[in-house]
Design brief:
179 residues, alpha+beta, seven-stranded antiparallel beta sheet, six-stranded antiparallel beta sheet, 3 helices, 45% strand
Length: 179
């Protein structure tokens, strides 16, 4: 009985310490980037800015089972991509509509966007480099590209991954604006 009386307060203190430690890391914030094309509509990317964890990434990279679990759960549902017009991202046609947005990676640091709609996933390959400064929270950017079209780029850790966005409606049309 005396042992329980000593262990119970220790357990409560331990739980309080864990909750305080977790409270210091903010919950992921939601961000949104839009591109408006006059006469066609908008393309909007909305996502939660996940915290980069180097140790967890290294473990998942080496362990296929952990990597698949991460790819199919936490990283698969980080936001949405909504487009009012057909686009091609990274060479993959994306019909207009709303998609769940996620990211996926393999043991060789190849990243993909995962766009889910109606139980089907569209995998968009990304060009990836590990040459940037450390970025502690996932961030995406949608910006104009040279010669028309746009670029979607994601950064997290020292990785930067991107793909070209081509808009069929843009042939000869003005470049649109980024919001």
């Amino acid at each position: 009985m005396r042992k329980r009386a000593i262990l119970a307060p220790l357990f409560v203190l331990m739980l309080a310490g864990l909750s305080m430690a977790q409270g210091q890391r903010p919950n992921p914030s939601e961000f949104s980037h839009s591109v408006s094309i006059e006469g066609a509509g908008k393309l909007t990317v909305t996502y939660k800015s996940l915290h980069w964890n180097e140790q967890a990434y290294a473990t998942a990279k080496l362990n296929e089972q952990i990597r698949e679990r991460l790819n199919s759960s936490l990283w698969k549902r980080i936001g949405t991509l909504t487009t009012d017009f057909d686009v091609t991202i990274g060479g993959v046609p994306i019909p207009k509509g709303s998609y769940g947005l996620g990211i996926n990676f393999d043991a060789s640091d190849n990243f993909k966007l995962v766009l889910g709609n109606g139980g089907k996933d569209i995998m968009v390959p990304l060009t990836t480099q590990q040459d940037g400064p450390m970025v502690n929270y996932l961030t995406f950017d949608v910006r104009p590209a040279e010669g028309g079209g746009f670029i979607i780029e994601g950064r997290s850790g020292k990785f930067r991954s991107w793909a070209e966005i081509k808009l069929p409606a843009m042939s000869g049309a003005p470049a649109g604006k980024s919001e």
